[in-house]
Each structure stands twice: as C-alpha cells, then as structure tokens.
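G., the chain you wanted modeled:
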Amino acid sequence: MSSDNQSPENVDPLEEKIFQRLRQWQDKHPNGDGPRDSELEGLVYRFLYRELRGIAAVLRGLGPQANNQQGDVSCRFTSVLHKAFVRIIEKYPDKLMQSKSRKQLTGYFSRTMSTMMLNHYKRKGTFQKIVEQLGLTEAEDAQVRDILSHLAEEKASDFEKRTGILFEKGLEVIKRWDESNDAEKNAWATALILRHVDGLGYDDIARELGMERFDSSGCDVVRQLVEQARKRVRSEAK
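Predicted structure as tokens:
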C-alpha cells in the first residue's frame, strides 16, 4: 500500500511535471552538458510564480511575522524553495541522482528567477499567461506581484550600489550573456545571478559552480569572477 505522501490525491501536478521533464532531460544528457530545456524553464516559471505566495506570511508588512528582521526577503524565499526542492528531488531513489537533480533544478530556478524580475520591470504579458494557467484570482495575482516587487527592490539596491547601473539594465545584459554561445559570458551571467539574484556568498557560489576547493583561495577565484562580470556588465549596459 502506498504511503500518504505518495497517494494520488497528494501528488502536485506541477511538481510531477517538473520531475518528469527533469528526468527526461537527464536520461538524454547523463553528463549534464545538454542544451537548455525551454519546456522545463516554462514549468519552473509557473512553479516560482505560484510559490511566491508562500513567503507572504514572512514578508515585511504582509504577514504576522512582518517584524522579524532575521534574514532578507530572498533568504526567506530561498527557504521556501528549498522545501520545494526536497519534495521534487526525493522522488529519486538514489543519492547521486538526487545530487544531480538538485544542481540541475537550482540552475533552472536561479535563471528563471532572474527572468521573472526582468519581466517585472518590463511588465511583459508573461505574468498574465501564468495567472491564467494557474487559475489565480485577481487578489492572489496582486499579492504575487507585490512580493516580486519587494524581491526586485531588495536586490536592485545592492546591485546598483556595486555596479552603478540600474538593475533592470543589468538583468537585460545578464539575459543576453546567458543565452549566448560564449562560455565566458555564460560564466559571467551565472556568477551575477548567483550573487545578485540568489544572494549567495562566495563560498556558496563556488559550490554551485562545482569548484572542488571551498577554502579562501576558492572564494578568491569566485570573487574575481564576480568582479570581472560587474565590470563587463557596467560596460555593456551603457
């Protein structure tokens, strides 16, 4: 007999679709070096938009824990997403596959979060399509946009202080780099997304980039990569 967690009525259709698509991608590209999957990115976009409502209770001014100053909005959002990662990744029976799945998922989630923030600035129609797909009410949609606005504003402040350019302009450059066929530009995009969208420290970025050394020298390499990317984004955003 199946456990409650595996019973049909408790299966999240969107999480299941993400898992199935991720497994298909990994079956085709076991070394993790395949092309980006636009369908998987679309599923992740929908998932992120839906999960944004999950931090309303701990977002400043929007819930009972509004006075809690422990961590910024993004850190609390990351905590919510971590639980979602666990639910999806636990579908894999072995630890190695779970590890590969986590790395693949975090890459898609980071990239998609950056796209969501850029769409927030551009006011693109993507939002309305997602609202219709998820069946959100007008009030729920407004809540999600408000949370996304808080997230973007929080990240914009640090990014603009570090680079001297508008966050929106920087996200546009990062998106071009990420979609290019230039490995160096891909690395710059990833470094800036992990630092300024995900808000990770240099040691965590080193882990996400698959570096073997996590000591001070490893952090120095990451710091140099991030600084190089900041200089380039300043140059290309003008």
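The longest helix spans residues 95-122.

Shout if anything looks off.
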